[in-house]
Design brief:
single chain, about 220 residues, six-stranded mixed β-sheet, three-stranded antiparallel β-sheet
Length: about 220
């Protein structure tokens, strides 16, 4: 039963097509399901629409064709490609603020933030200002902040693009832990190791043309 709960559909795409010019499409005929407890990768070369598809899933962008169905009450967090924080604020401050925004008192927010930073391998960085964090540490901090409040859907854009292999492997492990907490995690990436670590992959590399009946886009294991 627990495993079934982790895999409830959070977002459904049905025959979705999108492009920014009347005669050009980024992708066409895309049908996919993004479920809780699963890390789903979005693959494709630069310009294939990976970030745009994240925007459609987040309901920031409306597709030109097709339907997007989001489970009622879904909460969404987005982790951008370039980690952004307040330079002088500590790692603890960044995560505690997310808990404060969810109504916790300061003492509880601080306690929960410290515990969450430990879960993400940042226990030794609690009092470190954002400006002193490495690229991998900053990216893990943004993921920790995103998971505060237990969102249903976490969208992550190229999380390992600027990291070395060791830090990239750590971030990939963190993404899996986010899904293990029950969130649906959707990751746009061109990194083969990140995509290989996903439970399913939506490939946009061949979606910029009118598909035949057997070519409908899908998430595959």
């Amino acid at each position: 039963m627990r495993d079934e709960l982790k895999r409830e559909p959070v977002v459904l795409l049905h025959d979705v097509s999108h492009g920014f010019k009347p005669d050009q499409w980024l992708f066409e005929g895309l049908t996919a399901t993004f479920s809780s407890g699963v890390v789903t990768g979005i693959s494709g070369p630069s310009g294939s629409g990976k970030s745009t598809l994240l925007s459609i899933i987040a309901r920031w962008e409306k597709p030109r064709r097709g339907r997007v169905v989001v489970a009622r009450g879904t909460t969404t967090r987005w982790v951008f490609q370039n980690p952004f924080g307040v330079p002088r604020r500590t790692a603890l401050d960044h995560v505690a603020l997310a808990f404060l925004a969810h109504g916790l008192d300061r003492a509880s927010a601080t306690r929960e933030a410290a515990a969450l930073l430990g879960d993400f391998g940042l226990a030794g960085n609690v009092d470190m200002p954002f400006s002193a964090l490495s690229g991998g540490e900053a990216q893990r901090l943004m993921l920790a902040r995103a998971v505060a409040g237990h969102p249903d859907l976490i969208l992550v854009d190229e999380p390992t693009a600027q990291l070395d292999r060791a830090n990239a492997a750590t971030v990939n492990s963190v993404l899996a832990s986010l899904a293990a907490r029950g969130s649906a995690v959707v990751v746009a990436s061109h990194d083969g190791e990140t995509l290989a670590a996903c439970g399913a992959v939506v490939d946009l590399s061949a979606r910029a043309h009118a598909p035949g009946p057997s070519e409908a886009g899908h998430a595959h294991p």
